[in-house]
Amino acid sequence: MKSWILGKMRNVCLGLAALSAAGVLCAQADAAVVNGVSVTKGEGWVRVNVHAPGGSFRVHELPVGTSAYRSIAIDIPNSSIRGGLEPKPRLPVNEGLVAQVRVKQMGGYVRVLVDVVSFPKYQTGYQNGSFVLGMDPYHMRNGNPIAPQVR
Questions:
Q1: Residue 70 contacts residue 118 (beta carbons within 8 Å)
Q2: What is the pLDDT of residues 100-127, one digit of tens each?
Q3: List of residues 6+ apart from 60 with CB closer than 8 A
Q4: Extents of the domains making up the chain
Q5: Measured distance CA(97)–CA(118) in Å, rounded
Q6: Per-position DSSP letters for 60-100, written without gaps between them
Q7: Which helix (H) or strand (E) segment is 48 a member of?
Q8: Which residues of 60-97 are buried (b: 16+ CB within 10 A; e: fewer)?
Q9: What is the pLDDT of residues 140-150, one digit of tens each?
Q10: Can you name the CATH fold of 32-150?
Q11: From CA 90, how far away is CA 102, in angstroms rounded?
């Protein structure tokens, strides 16, 4: 009787281990890879382009942190930076309200931070396979913080 119970418990443990391994493999298979982040600007506009095919994006606003800037955060859940590379610490923009862009690997997701003096008017979308945050760097948005957007 005792060996029968031990045998059943071993089968249950092996089954749970197999399910856990399958879950990890599926999660890794669905992981997005951030291939690049670029900033383009022109007269009256600034765009941050995030190239992460198959990734989902969450855009939200962060209050003033350790620096004097507020930030618009673009989170790409379940993602990593291509090849584990370390991006530049900051990419200066210096256009109106938009100061700089930073990219960080934060555990299981990548965060793109757009540091701003005050929150500009902005919108999100897709263009040529990239997620795009388009901003009007010379006009502040009106009202309360914009609710987080998931795309």
A1: yes
A2: 999 999 889 999 999 999 999 999 999 9
A3: 72, 73, 75, 148, 149
A4: 1-30, 32-150
A5: 6
A6: EEE---SSS-EEEEEEESSEEEGGGPPPPS-EEEEETTEEE
A7: strand 45-51
A8: ebeeeeeeebbbbbbbbeebbbeeeeebeeeeebebbb
A9: 988 766 666 67
A10: Immunoglobulin-like (2.60.40)
A11: 5
